[in-house]
Amino acid sequence: MMSLSKLPHTGTTIFSVMSALANEVGAINLSQGFPDYDCAPQLIDLVTQAMKDGHNQYAPMPGLLPLREQIAYKTEKLHGAVYNPDTEITITAGGTQAIFTAICAAIHPNDEVIVFEPAYDCYAPAIKLMGGTVKSMELEPPDYRINWEMVKRLISNRTRMIILNSPHNPTSTILHEEDIKELEALVKNRDILILSDEVYEHLIFDGQTHHSMARYPELQQRSFIVSSFGKLFHTTGWKLGYCLAPAAMTAEFRKIHQYMVFSVNTPMQVAIAQYLKNEESYLGLAELFQQKRDYFRKGLAQTRFELLPCSGSYFQSVQYNGISDEKDTDFAMRITKEFGVASIPVSAFYSKGTDHHVLRFCFAKKQETLDKAVERLIKL
Fold first, then answer.
1. What is the pTM of this model?
2. Does domain 14-32+284-377 have CATH number 3.90.1150.10?
3. What are the sequence ranges of the domains in the chain?
4. What NCBIfam families is this protein classified in (predicted)?
5. What does the pLDDT look like over 349-359, one tens digit per residue?
6. CATH architecture of the domain formed by 42-281
7. In whole angstroms, what separates CA 275 from the centre of its chain?
8. Are 1 and 332 in contact (CB under 8 A)?
9. For residues 166 and 149, what is the distance between their CA atoms, to the nearest angstrom?
10. 167 preceded by a cis bond (ω within 30 of 0)
């Protein structure tokens, strides 16, 4: 029988695998990136009110205009970048849909896309589905910095896109000013697009700056910028995100978007448009998560793990060379079963399964959850 698979080497994501294992054995789930606490009660009230007020039918295909206007205001205030809400901002069913749609809109057969690994696992399958070629560049612990001289060697006349992710999942690193300068020099006078995954944009620690592509005119004009309200407001189950892009790129993006989902959750859009008017709702997030990071790192310092740097996102990566020489997938499964704490093995984010003996823990959890996890990991 003829094979129906367009992704024959792709199985169930590691996130689903580890969460299922955590549920099966009753482990504390620090694997998948979702909070175990509720969003702001006011946000629930706003959604409820929107439903009661009758906002239960299709939203416009690009998203509700008041929400797009709030995003435009936020982006201009934070990054000095002007986006037209009508033609340059699209509301999506989460960050992953926005990423997939941008790749579908831009990548043609035999186009090459540069991806930095470890990479979020939705990039490569989307590129392959469009007939594109993934040009991977592997980053290494402890700092996972990009070697731009190596990137130059990957550029060819078929390079169509570079995918960036800052703050980075899974390594919690961020782009620095020197990275931006190198990137600007690299794409200058070249027909290369950028897909910038910025879903953790407000989770930057230690007073550092989020170097959004929106801040830099030369990069802004060639960038799809993706963000997520699920990550922002602890509502991952609402699946609401957005994409910023110049008008011509947005027009292509929306051609795909309209047939993929058409439009997304109307009452949630109404609520978030209202909620965003309180700027502290997003400006206070860095402090909240920095406190969680510091608390979790202090606990992990009592274990035998080696802590890797964490400059952003809500993930903490650790090396376990001093504990075991097992493969990270085996080690992650064993500590889930034997010690009751689920993590993600970072080799899952490398196309070749490169194993640096690194695990990723999510610290977007209640304090008591983190306490219990540390208590168990100390026994390793």
1. 0.96
2. yes
3. 14-32+284-377, 42-281
4. PRK09082.1 (NF006569), PRK12414.1 (NF009079)
5. 999 999 999 99
6. 3-Layer(aba) Sandwich (3.40)
7. 22
8. no
9. 20
10. yes
